[in-house]
Specification:
With about 475 residues, this protein is α/β, with parallel strands linked by helices. It is about 45% helix and about 20% strand. β4 (about 55) and β5 (about 60-65) form a beta hairpin. The protein is globular, with a radius of gyration of 23 Å. The chain binds GDP-alpha-D-glucose (GDG). GDP-alpha-D-glucose binds near residues 26, 230 and 372. GDP-alpha-D-glucose (GDG) binds near residues 23 and 368. One of its GO terms (biological process) is trehalose biosynthetic process.
């Protein structure tokens, strides 16, 4: 289960409806696994006040949970994206704490838990995804003690001193401890969680395991709280990258942009955690300083629309669009813009063509659980060309050591990395890209699933045998 189902409903011109993959990291990573396992996926279908009957796509059965417009406002835009998202991303934006948002978060989490409790077979494994549903594990355990419950957090877990701001911190921790396995992106997230557990509950952590003391209903039990860095289906991306029509499209993109010597690319949901403003500032200064020649360079920024009704996102969009206008106004000529800004979503094939067309990919989040875009770029570059500039604050930086690692707050450092990437000799590109591709191929999503789901199955087995068995 996840807040959103992996698909968006599209209403065609003739009034008929169809489903299209929804953008975002959770879907990219998890869908190939779920498709293979043939699970039931419980989540919101994306439109408020609408009751949609369960349906099937391939081997997946999808069970929509209904949300009212007030639920969307308070549980989703409010508590999930106005409180938890900024708090868990190092308070880059100011989190807001409102009791009515929290009340609704509890109510909606209960609705999700009840839905799954009704649908799950005896002794089933339930896999709960992400920050919108952190209370579900404990609620579900109470309703259905037979289930094995796994939770995965796709975003960072904050340091305990920041998490401490949350008025309902203890309740969230207890919610998560309802799971048998709690998975995180990075070691630092798992460590922060275990320290937080020790600080706000009576449960001690021993290595990766938290021991939850016995209650009147249940003996003591253990929760595995560990890092399982997520990844992509690298071969699926490579397969698209090999297609002749996608390669042709990559060439066509370069032609359409006037065959620049250097094509730089950014691909992000339009989110303030992704460091788009810092990236644009660096690019703007490089043009102003004359270190980048607008006659030879184009920067394409794909900014996929996201959370458009949340204030901080509206404000970000306005700021980004003013900066884009300023850069092109100051440095463009008739027929040539140094910055191409695209505020819309694209097909997987078009994304891969963009990756193939780009000499440099700029991934500069201020904080990011993992960042799959960085991994996708490496998986697609079978030609071993191209340079990845990667923020050290993305989880992916732990694995992609041969990227040009940057601190996006350090604008001078970021500028130097961009220039270095644009001028990097082919031999160095090859050496670095080979290493990045190996890192992604060796740790693809199948590897992640084997590790994570392996631990979940072990937990299920241990529950079956019972303590002392
Ligand atoms: C969260 C965490 C973590 C984007 N626009 C389009 C499109 N995308 C795809 C990308 C990529 C995914 O969406 C974005 O994934 P990221 O990992 O970069 O970022 P989040 O959405 O913030 O994901 C993140 C992730 O969960 C997984 O755990 O890595 O840290 O924040 O796959 O390619 N795909 C298509 N059209 C678009 O316009 N087809």
């Amino acid at each position: 289960m996840s807040n959103r189902l992996p698909v968006d409903r599209v209403v065609e011109e003739d009034g008929s409806t169809s489903w299209r993959a929804s953008p975002g990291g959770l879907v990219t990573a998890v869908e190939p696994i779920v498709e293979q396992l043939g699970c039931l996926w419980v989540g919101w279908a994306g439109s408020a006040d609408e009751r949609i009957e369960p349906f099937e796509i391939g081997a997946m059965r999808l069970a929509p949970v209904e949300l009212s417009s007030e639920d969307v406002e308070r549980y989703y835009e409010g508590f999930s994206n106005g409180t938890l998202w900024p708090l868990y991303h190092d308070v880059i934006a100011q989190p807001e704490y409102h009791r009515e948002w929290w009340d609704r978060y509890q109510q909606v989490n209960r609705r999700f838990a009840e839905r799954v409790a009704e649908a799950a077979a005896e002794d089933a494994i339930v896999w709960v995804h992400d920050y919108q549903l952190q209370l579900v594990p404990a609620m579900l355990r109470e309703l259905r003690p037979d289930l094995t419950i796994a939770f995965f957090l796709h975003i960072p877990f904050p340091p305990s001193r920041l998490f401490a701001q949350l008025p309902w911190r203890k309740r969230i921790v207890e919610g998560l401890l309802g799971a048998d396995v709690v998975g995180f992106q990075q070691v630092t997230d798992a460590v922060a969680f275990r320290m937080t557990v020790e600080r706000f509950t009576r449960a001690p952590a021993l290595g990766n395991t938290v021991v939850v003391p016995s209650t009147p209903d249940e003996g003591s039990r253990t929760v595995l709280a560990q890092e399982f860095p997520i990844s992509i289906d690298a071969e699926a991306f490579a397969e698209v990258a090999r297609r002749p029509e996608v390669r042709r499209r990559a060439e066509e993109i370069r032609e359409e942009l006037g065959n620049p010597r250097t094509l730089m690319l950014g691909v992000d949901r339009l989110d303030y955690t992704k460091g788009i403003r810092h990236r644009l500032k660096a690019y703007k200064e490089l043009l102003e300083d004359g270190e980048i020649d607008p006659a030879e360079t184009v920067f394409v920024q794909v900014a996929t629309p996201s959370r458009e009704r949340v204030d901080a996102y509206r404000q970000l969009r306005d700021e980004v669009e003013v900066t884009v206008g300023r850069i092109n106004g100051d440095h463009g000529t008739i027929g040539r813009a140094p910055l191409v800004y695209l505020h819309r979503g694209y097909s997987r094939e078009e994304m891969v063509a963009l990756y193939l067309a780009a000499d440099v990919l700029l991934v500069t989040p201020l904080r990011d659980g993992m960042n799959l875009v960085a991994k996708e770029y490496a998986a697609c570059r079978l030609d071993e060309r191209g340079v990845l500039v990667l923020s050290e604050f993305a989880g992916a930086a732990d694995e992609l050591r041969d990227a040009l690692l940057v601190n996006p707050h350090d604008i001078e450092g970021l500028k130097a990395a961009i220039v270095r990437a644009a001028l990097m000799p082919l031999e160095e590109q090859r050496r670095r890209m080979r290493s990045l591709r190996r890192a992604v191929d060796d740790n693809d999503v199948a590897h992640w699933a084997a590790g994570y789901l392996g631990s979940v199955l072990a937990a299920a087995e241990a529950r079956r045998i019972g303590p002392g068995g």
